[in-house]
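seq:
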Amino acid sequence: MSGGRVLVVEDDIDIYSMLQLYFKSQGYEVYVAPRGGVALEMTRQNMPNVIVLDINLPTLTGTKYVASCGPICVSATFPLSS
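struct:
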């Protein structure tokens, strides 16, 4: 039984591997996107319940991802914390 979908948007392999391992051990279906553009596509395909987002991504930063995600996540509420 799945606890929900988690999208981890992180370019550091050590960090995203640790988060992926933890969330999977808690029963979540985990998707990892190392770049903001990949994260947007994954958000469109598998609307996650939770997004763990690195703000300092190369190319499409986490802040730009949130701004770009707006039209995709129109019916969703995502609390933001820094």
